[in-house]
Specification:
The protein folds into two domains: 4-74, Alpha-Beta Plaits (2-Layer Sandwich), CATH 3.30.70.20; 84-285, Metallo-beta-lactamase, Chain A. A hairpin with a 4-residue loop joins strand 2 (36-38) and strand 3 (43-45). It is of the alpha+beta class. It has helices at residues 27-31, 52-64, 76-83, 127-135, 153-160, 241-250, 271-285; strands at residues 16-18, 36-38, 43-45, 70-72, 87-90, 93-95, 109-111, 118-120, 141-143, 163-167, 179-181, 187-190, 193-197, 206-210, 214-218, 222-224, 229-231, 258-261, 267-268.
């Protein structure tokens, strides 16, 4: 729970605040951009909610925060915010909320499918999500994009008897995974679900393309609200920047209209616009050199 005694001085006066435990994961700024801003080191309340819609979004951010760093003078809206998760993004595709500190606040997603539901990366384990997932038909598969964002995947797998899927080079983060991806070629995991190895951020990083529309991108690429374009970062590339650039170029083979990342902003464009944005990113990355070692 956020501690008002540790309230950051950058917060504007009012009921909502961020305290000094913030890890600058960006979750609150994605959920409630009208309320939360960033300093480069942490989030803060830049503007108190002006209306009921902004207040509800701020409470959703409070609930989703992985470190409990957001507080509010009146917490009556928190219970209602809990009930709003998972949050619908498109028919059958949901943002889980309840980000986990174990994955530095990474986003996770739930896909409803008649042949069995999917969890893409993992939120923190909370009974509310367990109940909601059960009401929606349970979880058959848990796709893990890479080692950083597994969070509580093992607990969800045990609760629902789900099959965890991860690349062999990431297996150390989830050694009990029931299905292991090998090699560098795209693999159809089930009809409509294509695993695309995208090494770079980590050695065995994979994206998941669902239905030719939704690219669950892990930490491979994301939308930058400050740059107004798709982006990838050399600064958070833990394995090979050269491979990550090649993996971004690889995505030009595929069509999709959603980019749903683990970290960074989600974005939705028509196919043609998304192709243009991806080509723009590829062109930009060609001018970013390998980091010094």
């Amino acid at each position: 729970m956020a501690d008002v005694a540790n309230r950051l001085p950058e917060n504007v006066e009012g009921p909502f605040f961020v305290d000094s435990t913030c890890i600058d994961c960006d979750t609150c700024r994605q959920i409630a951009p009208a309320t939360f801003g960033e300093t480069g080191d942490f989030s803060y309340v830049r503007c108190q909610p002006h209306d009921a819609g902004e207040e509800r979004a701020a409470f959703r951010a409070l609930v989703a925060c992985p470190t409990g760093s957001i507080g509010a003078a009146g917490k009556g809206g928190a219970k209602e915010a809990v009930e709003e998760f998972p949050w619908p993004l498109a028919p059958g595709v949901w943002y889980c909320g309840f980000a986990s500190r174990k994955s530095f606040g990474g986003s996770s997603y739930f896909v409803e499918h008649p042949s069995g539901n999917w969890l893409v990366d993992s939120p923190r384990y909370v009974e509310h999500l367990v109940r909601r997932f059960a009401q929606m038909g349970g979880i058959r598969y848990i796709f893990l994009t890479h080692r950083d964002d597994v969070a509580d995947a093992a607990r969800y797998a045990a609760r629902f008897g789900a099959i965890r899927i991860v690349h062999r080079l990431e297996l150390a983060a989830q050694p009990g995974a029931e299905r292991v991806i090998d090699g560098g070629e795209a693999q159809e995991l089930a009809p409509g679900f294509l695993a695309i190895p995208t090494p770079g951020h980590t050695a065995g990083h994979c994206a998941l393309l669902y239905g030719g529309r939704f690219l669950f991108a892990g930490d491979h690429l994301w939308w930058s609200r400050t740059r107004g374009r798709l982006t990838a970062s050399r600064d958070v590339c833990w394995h090979s920047w050269r491979q990550q650039v090649a993996s971004v170029k690889l995505l030009e083979r595929y069509e999709f209209e959603w980019v749903l990342p683990g970290h960074g902003e989600r974005v939705h464009f028509p196919y043609v616009r998304m192709k243009q944005e991806l080509a723009r990113l590829v062109a930009a990355l060609e001018h970013v050199s390998e980091p010094r070692t």
